Amino acid sequence: MKSLLPSGQRLVWRKPPISSAFRIKNILREVIAGIEEEGIKARVIRCFKSSDVAFVAVEGNRLSGSGISIGIQSKGTTVIHQRGLPPLSNLELFPQAPLLTLETYRQIGKNAARYAKRESPQPVPTLNDQMARPKYQAKSAILHIKETKYVVTGKNPQELRVAL
Predict the structure, then answer these.
(1) Of 12, 29, 38, 56, which is most buried with the most CB atoms under 10 A?
(2) What pLDDT sits at residue 6?
(3) Name one GO molecular function term (predicted).
């Protein structure tokens, strides 16, 4: 189960995330491919109740048969979450979206599927750049403000059909 933030197509899919060179459809393609390579069927939902990626992931795992979900923020920040954990206690967190590659997103999908199958995940190699946060923080904050405008308190999530 992948969860997208409330802005969905209106904001996220119109242009690439500000801190990544990839369009959300390319990210979804890789995440779904990683899940399917592990023999699991992926579902994609759009959450409207929050623009916080951790709470979006919680909403996703509430609807997931396996209790595992991946929350993806428009700027590319991604979490893997498990039902029953507090919102900010993720199984895995990938906060430096400017440094995530499409292969990283595929590995995130694989790990989520492994968690769903109760198997051990593999370490996902990521880069670290001390300047990534200051370089993108202002743009990221603006994008988050725009995305938060699409939050609709109490609105149920919407399952999406994804044609990649």
Answers:
(1) 56
(2) 58
(3) propanediol dehydratase activity
